Amino acid sequence: MQRHKNYVNGKYLDNRTKECFAVINPATGKQIYEVEIADDTVLNAALESAVKGFKAWSAMDTVNRSRILMRAVSLLRDRNDDLARIEVMDTGKPFQEASTVDVVTGADVIEFFAGAAPGISGSQQDLGRDFYYTRREPLGVCAGIGAWNYPLQIACWKAGPALACGNSMIFKPSEETPLGALKLAEIFTQVGVPDGVFNVVQGAATVGQWLTACPGIEKISFTGEVGTGKKIMASAASTLKDVTMELGGKSPLIIFEDADVDQAVSAAMLGNFYTQGEVCTNGTRVFVHTSIREKFLEQLLARTRANIKMGDPMDPDTNFGALISSEHKKKVLSYIQSAKAEGATQQCGHTMPTLPSQNQEGFFVPPTVFTDCTDQMTFVREEVFGPVMAVLDFDTEAEVIQRANATPFGLAAGVFTRDIQRAHRVIHQLKAGICWVNAYGASPAQMPVGGYKQSGVGRENGLETIGYYTQVKSVYMGMGPLDSPF
Ligand code: NAD
Predict the structure, then answer these.
(1) pLDDT digits (tens, 9 = 90+) for 204-254
(2) Distance from CA of residue 37 to its chain's centroid?
(3) pTM (2 d.p.)
(4) Ligand 1 centre and the CA of 147: distance in Å?
(5) Is 304 exposed, middle or buried (0-12, 13-18, 19+ CB in 10 A)?
């Protein structure tokens, strides 16, 4: 069995305890490799190297830093398909997606921040005789903690801005999907990122807890569940670390009576079935105006039955893969059970399609659509994080805005209408950080993303993020004698 290790100070490092965890291919249910857990030796070495790495990296001219990161972008793109295959084996998502989205969008974000880095600057203001200026300085050693749905992309979305701003990073991928981040670390070393600037430590919650409590770490950037985010913020508070929290959601997708129904169906399918439903911004509460309900449902069900190809994720025709784990599959199935028990009508997803023999043990759940849903049903209120769509009817604009906002989450929202004034009016009233009009799911590097309410703190991507990986130093310059009563 192949064994992977932690990546510290520009190379792989053995742990002392020899403890490992197993990684399973979700499409087959079989173990594919094992990974050494970061013990105290590894974690202390990672911190020591990140401190050293920070010194060298933050002192480097920003144009040079940018040039090195751009070389990493090229290598990521050169190795697109190999990296995509790793993501498919770890996550169970289709190669069709991983090879066109996961690596590409990871590389885009590093490229965006590498391009922006030389432009990071402070300001200066005259105060009569005296003046002050500000410097935007890096924070120091940052920690990134990732979820399993977009492992390499998440590592890139955290490393890109952190490193471009001059920080070093210790990254902990999800224990379900540990390989992508190691490949990113290898690439950084290969292109000349100094040793210690990007380290990868492996393990589950205890390794994450070590990072969040560690006094030498200045910031935690976390992607994961709301409940975990709360624990991490509480732990980070003990040393007053800066935090960025990219958490879960239960986002509304609102389809008005004047919408292009074909486009709205595409959005509902993208926002519920892409990555077999394991996307944080998914529009899982699909509010459809009563007057177009039948037309919408007819198209939705016909296209779901005809166009979704669930199966071996490496097959280029497959566009719908396996859920991450047996445990997660059980959780998703229990939400489907609860939906039925609470009175929703299941329109599709009743039976498991026949899959090639090697996939019989995989963690597949077919695309599932429910109608006759109410806002109070458990699966309509809670994040399922699987391919389970709730179709809800509405009559008026005021009603749908109120219902869309009646949730502790606030990650994303979508509106479909041809009425431009209504589009803006509604979007401006929705309490969500990422909104789409006549679109769903696109997340370009330039656009800041993050949650309102319990869906997050801070932002990733876009120029705003530079503010989250730097701190402002004000320098007052006295140009004459001090005015003092003493
Ligand atoms: P999770 O919260 O279970 O785990 C995320 C990471 O946190 C893992 O690396 C895990 O090992 C680590 N962790 C767990 N307990 C910890 C603790 N006490 N201290 C420190 N680290 C700890 O989330 P998941 O199941 O991996 O991912 C799915 C969730 O992620 C969903 O809720 C989804 O909405 C969310 N998500 C959000 C975004 C976003 O950008 N908003 C993106 C992707 C996923």
Answers:
(1) 999 999 999 999 999 999 999 999 999 999 999 999 999 999 999 999 999
(2) 23
(3) 0.97
(4) 4
(5) buried
